[in-house]
Design brief:
Largest sheet: 11 strands, mixed
Number of strands: 11
Structural class: alpha/beta
Strand order of the largest sheet: 3-2-1-4-11-10-5-6-9-7-8
Oligomer: single chain
CATH topology of one domain: Isopropylmalate Dehydrogenase
Number of helices: 11
Amino acid sequence: MSTPKHEKYRRLIEACESLPAMPTAVVHPCDESSLEGAMGAAKIGLIVPILVGPPARILATAAACGIDLSGVEIVHAEHSEAAAAAAVKLVREGRAEALMKGSLHTDELMGAVVRREIGLRTSRRVSHCFVMDVPGHPDVLIITDAAINIAPTLEDKVDILQNAIDLAHALNFPEVRVAILSAMETVNPKVPSTIEAAALCKMVDRGQITGAIVDGPLALDNAIDLEAARIKKIDSPVAGRANVLLVPDLEAGNMLAKSLSFLADADAAGIVLGARVPIILTSRADSELSRLASCAVAVLVARARRESMQKAIA
């Protein structure tokens, strides 16, 4: 059964209504879309923005767009690279629980995040997830990785997969069903992604990856369409019902996500996982609701992180 367009994102935002606004370092918000996105999320109580960048440019952008920055903290940084470093420092100091990308290149921001000693590395590899609101599809669909890891190895995919599973739990998926995508649903030694899919499934069996039902290789049609899975005679609790899609590489993931956006009128919220805090990645092409959904996803991830830390201490 399908749900109205945007209903899935609205549910994510509503799930944050009882949670405190999250202190968020907004990195170099020097254009209209990034500043409006941050302040829009602040207006509905998702985040408390700390704007990091050249104050004169930020204030000029706000004036040009009619945005009131009264009471909003601005941390001085001369340029985009310095803003990324300053925002990371705010996280390390405990003043921010998330980062939000402004008008700088993703590489500049991620360079500061993964810097050894003074960055935000953890034992996990950093990876990106799209949280897609696809019209006609009953639930949000997670696609990973379509923005960070260009040609991930099997070892990389272990972390990419676990990051996505943990995200699904943070978003309160009742059951996490992961399809490891390839061009086919049979293991073929000539197609490396099918071999890696089989290995990942066995790692799930051995408890090396936890928290989800995982199957693969699966082609896209029989991953998300029950009739396609039936025709192919695929007996699997995931086939036709996947809510997380692990793609073979960045090119495949990027094309899949953008195909859904531009051909199926889907919206795409974006988040980076595997660092000390969630990182909100937005695009200038994103709708206002997609930006708000990205912030809501980060708020829910931060809550799950806090709860996990509290359990570890207890």
